[in-house]
Every structure is written in C-alpha cells, then in structure tokens.
Amino acid sequence: MLSQNIGNEESVIAYFSKILGKPERISCVTRKELLAIVKSIEHFHHYLYRRKFLLPTDHASSRWLLNFKEPEGQIARWIERLQEYDFEIQHRKGTSHGNADALSRRPCRESCKKCTNAKKKLGMKTDISVKVLTTTTVDPWSSCEIQKAQLEDPAIKQILEKKLNSVDRPSWQEIEYQFNQTLE
C-alpha cells in the first residue's frame, strides 16, 4: 500500500499486491519480506524515485537485511536495486498496523541458507509482516488543481483543450507538435 500523511491521518494513494510463484512461496518469511519491499518499491517507482520516504514494517529483519555485510546472489541484487531509492525503514509493532497482513506466514527453517537464517543469528522475530509504503513528500492535488495547472502550461494546454473540446480522440498528427514542445 502506498499512503501519504495528510495532517494526522494516513490516506491511501494506491494498493499493490503480487501473487507469488512456486519458488517464492516456498521461501522463508525473511526472503519474502525483502521481495515484497523490492517489488512494492519498483511498482511505485514513479511516486518514490528521487523522493525521501518511510517504509514502515513490523518485520524487524528487513532493517538488518538492507545492512547485510556480504550479501550474495539474489539478495545482493535486490539490495543493489533498493540503493537507488532514498528511504528509511521504520519498525512498527504488528498491532499498530490496522492493515497488517499476518496470514500465510511460514517461519524460517533452522537450515535456511537463502537468507542466512536471520532469526537464528540475530534472535529476531520473523513471523508477522506487513507491506506498507508511506511517503510524506507528495503534495495532495485534486483533479481540478491538476487540470488548472495543465491549462496554465502553454504546451499542455493546447493538447488538453483538443481533448476536452473534441468528441473523438485527437490524432497523433494533430498533437505531435505540442507533445514535442512539452519535452523541451
């Protein structure tokens, strides 16, 4: 879930979910949590890239995973992808999440080699998790405010007016010139 704090209230911007494939389903919870972080951030890239944001989770190992000393394989690639973003992981107790997803959790096996068994090494709980992304940097704009701003932009205004005043969608030839101006 991508949300934004407006005043003292958390407002949902968008939801995201992913069905896990068979190899992902048999992974331990710690590995699934890192996958959830990576996939969620990639999905909301257009909201999060080049913005500082918080990633609240009740999965304590997530903070440890991102500071892993010598990651290998897939975990190393995931951590490398996340380094493009400016975020802070904020640990919250599972009970403080009204939208916590604690279903279908499989505890990490003693012999789990894929995540180096964070629970065993660090004594961390790995049984409950949540996939929540929160950003406080996006200003809330209404659709009327966005349309007003678009009408004030000389290049976008011409395209938008053609769209608003035409029953049919304008052809590419009709708007190509204005489109190219928006790129300058």
Keywords, separated by commas or semicolons:
41% helix; 5 strands; 3-stranded mixed β-sheet
3D structure, described in words:
It comes from Araneus ventricosus. InterPro entries: DNA/RNA_pol_sf, Retrovirus_Pol_polyprotein, RT_RNaseH. Keywords: Endonuclease, Hydrolase, Nuclease, Nucleotidyltransferase, RNA-directed DNA polymerase, Transferase. GO terms for molecular function: endonuclease activity; hydrolase activity; RNA-directed DNA polymerase activity. Pfam families: RT_RNaseH. It is a single chain. This protein is an alpha/beta fold. The chain has two domains: about 1-105, no CATH class; about 145-180, no CATH class. The protein has nine helices and five strands; from the N terminus they run ββαααβααβαβααα. It has helices at about 20-25, 30-45, 45-50, 60-65, 75-80, 120, 145-150, 155-165, 170-180; strands spanning about 1-5, 10-15, 50-55, 85-90, 135. Strands 2-1-5 form a three-stranded mixed sheet, with no helix packed on it. A two-stranded parallel sheet has the order 3-4. Helix 2 (about 30-45) runs parallel beside helix 5 (about 75-80) and helix 8 packs antiparallel against helix 9. The longest helix is centred in the first third of the chain and has 15 residues, at about 30-45. The radius of gyration is 21 Å and the shape is elongated. It starts with a strand and ends with a helix.
